[in-house]
């Protein structure tokens, strides 16, 4: 790569400085002295600098009856005015830099981030810190952002995005009564109840030095950390103590949540809690098992191959062993979605409504086969090779790289590094052991978001087969024979474990 | 530039336009798609890489773009065919469907063997289709580059699948349609292009009309015609970026693609007659949704030699960026609008400059539409100040540079421009046009293209229930 590096260096002053050739970091440090923790990755030749302010605050901190407060506070920090300038003035200032302030609020973390050319770094950092340290809390901003959140919940989520609705309903079904159990954006009643004073108080209590991890990546100047430390000292040292999470609600038996909404198709999400996270030694073999079953957005997984590839049921079928939010158009996970409690999850993208029963059964059938037979030797080796190589692609740009490094600091383990360290010596037996130990098709929740919930409920509860009727020809005999098994795959449902909720009222409170 | 459908995933972004917020998930939340030729007269090019080019005897063009991406390469195959080439009735959506079929194997590399090969090298692989192009892309470790050439050369020449596989894959496409069908945006886009165009194939969306998608299983024979017609070396460009040796790449490509026979068919794309009036449709939606007004204005084809396309790109930023007066008034001050955006037209043939406003109350649809027209008329009459124009160009310059931060970014940017023009040089030519846009240009295009007589189509949608 010397030649290419020389090329970059040889470009003229203006464009050499601009042309960001992604380069590996030369320094990767985590410091935890007094004040905020810092994760710094320096790649001096990179003209771009990524800044991530990750606060350990999220929807789990929403007070009862004020669901949505954390998300609204995040928005009022990053997408509204500061004491120094109105939001319109902020947009004006950011515009020529081609930079923005990204606000990401999740269950446990709130991240304010951006990437900027180092030409504009000083001005950008000042803007970002003004937002975090001295939000304006303007009533007009509050009104705008609360309206937006309410519309996102009551119109977009309930009505226009079946896949997101299914996933969010799974959270509700898994975690009802637990701090994870309501949408990050809030509930209708919670958003209606939140006041600007609530936001002010929430900011003062939660956006503290003690809860902050600062990630810096790319062409980080030597003095940037010190400058940030100096200004961030204006945040309260500590505020509301971070409460321990209650235990994940126990789950026994197969549960079904039907979200009734009109439409052409049915979105399916299935899951159950996991007792471990990426910090546990068993997580790496479990991660491999999930990749084999349903690696996100690839044809690697058996769910995808057998449900979409062989049967044309839908557009995609995937499996996960931790909360996964896709980063934009990439296939990679968003950084800073870290959670202290995790779940096993299967995502079946929308299927024609008359095929929902079969699709549900096939997802359980494929998982049951994995439990019964374990991972085959070839599948094990291919998946191990895949993860060893693919995980090297996770950190191509400075922003994502430092985001994952912050996750590593918070989790106490670096997932990509652990994969590189553990996979070469991992055995198939270890993977099969964790599959049997942690995965279940007996104790889980299945969410079906689609039309005709009452009829679906009756059909599934009856125990009758739900045959797949093809409108295509040439299905091989072995697939048709297997279909006979899948269509009657035993469900272990009971009326008391089935709920039907109209989409029009889900997440009301 | 908003992308729509795609094969394995809801696609990568194509080239985002100038207006912030149009492309979800863009890392910086910034806009690219144009770039000035540097500040203060700096002569350096926006796409600053040492591009190497080779054209095989059969017409296949290959670009090698070395850049500092240690151990990683991105390999893009650009087929200059998209839904624009769906010329026969009932074939809407077929280019995208065919993209799916390209993963169904060859006599040498079966579907399973192909997938396993990509899996073992940890490849991030996918494809996307849009109006003028179908783009296949793989990012993986640099040492796998010879294997990528072998795999891609093989499937582009020797694709083979059964009718049963074809039919099954057609239902994955239906699934792709279904996953988007709950969002009124799909209906709005379908209606907009169906109303604005009478003859040209831009009349249908890339995902296709539902009735055509549902009928896809019966088109097996046509799929072979489609492959023979369009998947030919003279219609394809390969781009590799990252940690690579161009000479080695070209040698491997000569070996693997050299036997690919040229095609001969070039069926004509029907020309669209001029639109000289306003066309308007009012839709309803059965579920709760924000009312919307979508407006499409006929504008010229993409060009790096004409000024108007670049001027329209800059105009979009001047009028519809979040920092622009119109957004400030409608979204921040009046708060009658939830979201305001514009899509410029970078297409091979004349298409639409599209403006979308999501309003909070249907009673305000007319006033919002009028405010948009008034702002465009104001720019036509008064222009904009030079400082605003300079800042738009500066943002574009920084934004474009930031988009080149990875091998994937470099290759995808190149793929977009190559898909439109066939030549990678058009990237810098486009940036030069952008840099040359003047206030007078903005006044001219604002006055010329945004009047009813220039062809205006307006679609509204309101919920049947609140």
Give the CA-based shape of chain A.
Answer: globular
Beta-strand portion of chain B reads 15-25%
Q: Tell me the total number of β-strands of chain B.
A: 11
Regions with little confidence, pLDDT below 50 for 5+ residues of chain B? 1-42
CA-CA gap between termini of chain B: 31 Å
Rounded to the nearest angstrom, the radius of gyration of chain A is 24 Å
Radius of gyration of chain B: 22 Å
Provide a count of the helices of chain B: 15
Largest interface: A-B, 106 and 100 residues
Q: What do these coordinates show?
A:
The complex is a heterodimer of chains A (509) and B (466). Chain A is an alpha+beta fold and 509 residues long. Chain A has 19 helices and twelve strands. In chain A, α11 (283-294) crosses α17. The longest helix of chain A has 22 residues, at 139-160. The relative contact order of chain A is 0.15. Chain B has 466 residues and is α+β, with helices and mostly antiparallel strands. Chain B is 40% helix and 17% strand. Chain B has helices at residues 94-101, 111-120, 145-158, 163-180, 184-196, 210-214, 220-230, 246-257, 308-320, 325-333, 365-382, 386-402, 407-421, 426-436, 439-449; strands spanning 52-55, 61-66, 72-79, 124-129, 134-141, 236-242, 278-285, 292-299, 337-343, 351-359, 456-463. In chain B, the strands form two sheets. Chain B has a six-stranded mixed beta sheet with strand order 1-2-6-3-5-4, sandwiched between helices. Classes of the chains: A alpha+beta (509), B alpha+beta (466).
């Amino acid at each position: 790569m010397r030649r290419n590096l020389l090329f970059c260096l040889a470009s003229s002053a203006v464009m050499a400085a601009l042309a960001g050739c992604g380069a590996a970091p030369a320094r990767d440090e985590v410091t935890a002295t007094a004040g905020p923790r810092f994760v710094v990755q320096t790649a001096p030749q990179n003209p771009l600098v990524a800044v991530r302010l990750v606060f350990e605050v999220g929807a789990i901190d929403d007070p009862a009856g004020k669901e949505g407060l954390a998300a609204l506070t995040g928005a009022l920090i990053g997408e509204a005015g500061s004491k120094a300038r109105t939001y319109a003035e902020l947009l004006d200032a950011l515009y020529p830099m081609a930079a923005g302030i990204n606000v990401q609020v999740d269950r446990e973390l709130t991240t304010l981030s951006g990437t900027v050319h180092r030409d504009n770094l000083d001005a950008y950092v000042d803007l970002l810190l003004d937002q975090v340290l001295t939000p304006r809390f303007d009533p007009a901003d509050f009104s705008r952002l609360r309206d937006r959140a309410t519309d996102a919940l009551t119109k977009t989520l309930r009505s226009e995005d079946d896949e997101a609705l299914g996933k969010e309903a799974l959270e509700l079904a898994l975690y009802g009564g637990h701090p994870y159990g309501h949408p990050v954006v809030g509930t209708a009643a919670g958003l209606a109840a939140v006041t600007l004073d609530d936001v002010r108080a929430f900011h003062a209590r939660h956006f503290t030095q003690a809860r902050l991890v600062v990630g810096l990546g790319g062409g980080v100047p030597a003095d940037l950390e010190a400058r940030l430390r100096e200004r961030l000292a204006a945040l309260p040292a500590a505020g509301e103590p971070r409460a321990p999470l209650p235990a994940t609600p126990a789950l026994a038996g197969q549960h079904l949540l039907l979200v009734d909404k009109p439409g052409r198709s049915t979105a399916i999400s299935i899951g159950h809690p996991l007792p471990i996270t990426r910090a546990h030694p068993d997580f790496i073999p479990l991660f491999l098992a999930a990749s084999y079953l349903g690696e996100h957005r690839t044809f690697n997984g058996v769910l995808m191959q057998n449900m979409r590839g062989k049967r044309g049921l839908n557009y995609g079928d995937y499996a996960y062993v931790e909360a996964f939010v896709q980063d934009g158009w990439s296939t990679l996970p968003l950084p800073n979605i870290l959670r202290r409690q995790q779940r096993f999850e299967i995502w079946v993208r929308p299927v024609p409504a008359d095929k929902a029963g079969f699709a549900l059964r096939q997802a359980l059938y494929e998982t049951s086969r994995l439990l019964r037979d374990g991972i085959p030797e070839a599948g094990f080796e291919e998946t191990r090779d895949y993860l060893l190589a693919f995980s090297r692609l996770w950190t191509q740009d400075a922003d994502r790289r430092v985001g994952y490094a912050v996750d590593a600091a918070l989790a106490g383990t670096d997932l990509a590094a652990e994969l590189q360290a553990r996979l070469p010596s991992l055995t198939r037996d270890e993977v099969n052991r964790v599959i049997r130990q942690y995965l279940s098709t007996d104790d889980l929740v299945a969410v079906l978001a689609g039309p005709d919930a009452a009829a679906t409920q009756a059909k599934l509860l009856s125990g009758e087969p739900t045959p797949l009727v093809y409108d295509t020809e040439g299905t091989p005999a072995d697939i048709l024979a297997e279909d006979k098994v899948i269509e009657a795959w035993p469900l272990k449902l009971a009326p008391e474990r089935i709920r039907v909720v109209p989409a029009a009222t889900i997440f009301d409170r | 530039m908003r992308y729509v459908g795609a094969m394995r995933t809801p696609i990568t972004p194509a080239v985002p336009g100038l207006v912030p917020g149009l492309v979800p998930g863009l890392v910086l939340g910034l806009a690219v798609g144009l770039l000035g030729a540097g500040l203060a007269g700096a002569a350096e090019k926006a796409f600053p890489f040492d591009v190497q080019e080779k054209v095989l005897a059969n017409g296949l063009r290959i670009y090698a773009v070395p850049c500092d991406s240690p151990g990683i390469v991105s390999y893009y195959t650009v087929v200059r065919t998209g839904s624009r080439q769906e010329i026969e009735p009932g074939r809407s959506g077929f280019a995208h469907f065919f993209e799916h079929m390209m993963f169904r194997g060859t006599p040498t590399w079966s579907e399973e063997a192909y997938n396993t090969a990509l899996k073992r090298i940890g490849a991030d692989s996918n494809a996307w289709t849009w109006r003028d192009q179908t783009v296949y892309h793989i990012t993986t470790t640099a040492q796998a580059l010879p294997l990528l050439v072998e795999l891609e050369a093989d499937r582009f020449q020797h694709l083979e699948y059964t009718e049963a596989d074809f039919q099954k894959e057609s239902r994955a496409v239906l699934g792709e349609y279904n996953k988007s069908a709950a969002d009124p945006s799909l209906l709005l886009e379908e209606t907009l292009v169906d109303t604005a165009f009478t003859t040209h194939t831009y009349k249908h969306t890339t995902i296709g009309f539902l009735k055509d998608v549902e009928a896809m299983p019966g088109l097996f024979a046509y799929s072979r015609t489609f492959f023979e017609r369009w998947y030919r070396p003279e219609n394809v460009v390969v781009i590799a970026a990252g940690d690579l040796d161009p000479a080695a790449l070209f040698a491997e490509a000569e070996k693997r693609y050299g036997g690919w026979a040229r095609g001969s068919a070039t069926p004509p794309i029907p020309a669209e007659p001029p639109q000289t009036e306003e066309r308007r449709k009012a839709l309803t939606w059965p579920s709760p949704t924000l009312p919307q007004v979508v407006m499409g204005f006929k504008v010229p084809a993409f060009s790096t030699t004409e000024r108007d396309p670049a001027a329209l790109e800059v105009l979009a930023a001047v009028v519809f960026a979040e920092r622009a007066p119109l957004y400030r008034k409608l979204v921040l001050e009046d708060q009658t609008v939830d979201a305001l955006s514009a899509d410029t037209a970078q297409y091979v043939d004349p298409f639409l400059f599209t403006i979308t406003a999501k309003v909070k109350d249907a009673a305000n649809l007319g006033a919002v539409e009028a405010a948009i027209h008034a702002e465009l008329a104001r720019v036509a009459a008064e222009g904009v100040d030079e400082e605003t124009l300079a800042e738009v160009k500066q943002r574009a310059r920084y934004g474009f540079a930031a988009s080149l931060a990875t091998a994937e970014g470099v290759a995808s940017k190149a793929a977009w421009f190559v898909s439109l023009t066939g030549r990678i040089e058009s990237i810098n030519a486009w940036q030069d046009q952008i840099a040359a846009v003047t206030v007078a240009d903005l006044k001219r295009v604002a006055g010329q293209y945004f009047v009813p007589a220039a062809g205006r189509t307006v679609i509204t949608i309101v919920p049947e229930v609140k």
